[in-house]
Design a protein that fits this description.
This protein has a six-stranded antiparallel beta sheet, sandwiched between helices. The protein has a two-stranded antiparallel ribbon with strand order 1-2. A two-stranded antiparallel ribbon has the order 3-4. It contains nine helices and ten strands. α2 packs across α3. It folds into two domains: about 60 residues, Winged helix-like DNA-binding domain superfamily/Winged helix DNA-binding domain (Arc Repressor Mutant, subunit A); about 170 residues, GAF domain (Beta-Lactamase). It is globular, with a radius of gyration of 40 Å. The longest helix is centred in the first third of the chain and has 21 residues. A hairpin with a 7-residue loop joins β1 and β2. The protein is α+β, with helices and mostly antiparallel strands and about 300 residues long.
Length: about 300
């Protein structure tokens, strides 16, 4: 047996393999603890009533005001006229028009005037699909025009006024004509009085109190007592008469349409010059309009009251 010195750290003997000296090991480096990153604070969405919501609401309101002003102006309007009408600074009005034009709601004419655009027409026309009113009413209006020889109309109530949504013009050279969307006062128009007479008394009174009884011609009814008597007579007859109360030289006969609950929601009329719609024809034309309104009401699924 032979021993090396301890520095060699090797032992030799029979049957025993030398063992290498154990080298000192370096301590393992430890990673510093990683702190989790803080999550960014979640920002709550701005409430509709906040500054942004209010700003958007004001812009929308002004944009709708621009569309309504243009719709009510024959032949369009200039930027200056529109800004004055809406009490807006010209740059603000121009910015609104530019936004609406980009979306197709308004367009500019050859003379620089601003007009209602095609897209606004499409959006507005969607109302006419309500209950398919116009599509179903048209054949009845056309038949009524053929039978009476006078222009026939379909109107609904909106914001206390009668709004024409369809018209079938007669073939006479001298005839009544109004553009679709035109408004008329309820107390001084045939369709208006037809719907007022058919309404609940409280609803009719609320509309009249808000709108008043403005005079349009010498024959316009301008007192509550006279109007109440006229509406009572209208209910008894089943049709209303506009005897030059809205326009001089024009006479109109109208009757209401009823919904499935027996509530009035539209009216039809025929109108023409007083030279053709003479007093002796009014009763016959009134019965014709009343019968047509009853037929159309049933076609629309409505429930006319029993007479």
């Amino acid at each position: 047996m032979r021993f090396h010195d301890r520095r060699g750290a090797v032992l030799e003997s029979a049957g025993i393999q030398p063992i290498a000296p154990r080298m000192p090991t370096k301590p393992k480096a430890t990673r510093p603890a990683v702190r989790p990153r803080p999550k960014p604070a979640r920002v709550a969405p701005r409430a509709p009533g906040g500054r942004g919501g209010a700003g958007h609401t004001q812009a929308l309101s002004r944009g709708l005001g621009v569309l309504e002003a243009l719709a009510a102006t024959e032949g369009g309007a200039t930027l200056t006229a529109l800004a004055e009408k809406l009490a807006l600074p010209a740059p603000t009005a121009h910015r609104l028009l530019a936004t609406l034009a980009e979306a197709g709601y308004v367009e500019q004419g050859t003379a620089g005037e601003w007009l209602i655009g095609v897209r606004a027409f499409r959006v507005g026309s969607a109302f006419l699909d309500h209950r398919n009113l116009v599509a179903q009413a048209y054949p009845y209006l056309k038949q009524l025009m053929e039978q009476s020889g006078e222009t026939t109309n379909l109107a609904v109530v909106d914001d206390g006024e009668a709004v024409t949504v369809e018209q079938v013009p007669c073939r006479e050279l001298m005839r009544m004509s109004t553009k679709l969307g035109a408004r008329a006062p309820l107390h001084a128009s045939g369709v208006g009085k037809a719907m007022l007479a058919a309404m609940d008394g409280a609803a009719a009174s609320a509309i009249l109190e808000g709108r008043g009884l403005a005079r349009h011609t010498a024959k316009t009814i301008t007192t509550a007592g006279q109007l109440a008597a006229e509406l009572a007579a209208t209910r008894d007859r089943g049709y209303a008469i506009d005897d030059e109360e809205h326009a001089d030289g024009m006479r109109c006969v109208a009757a209401p349409l009823w919904d499935e609950h027996g509530e009035p929601w539209a009216a039809i009329s025929l109108a023409g010059p007083t030279s053709r719609i003479t007093p002796d024809r009014v009763a016959d034309l009134g019965r014709l309009v009343r019968a047509t309104a009853a037929d159309l009401t049933r076609a629309l699924g409505g429930n006319p009251p029993r007479r």
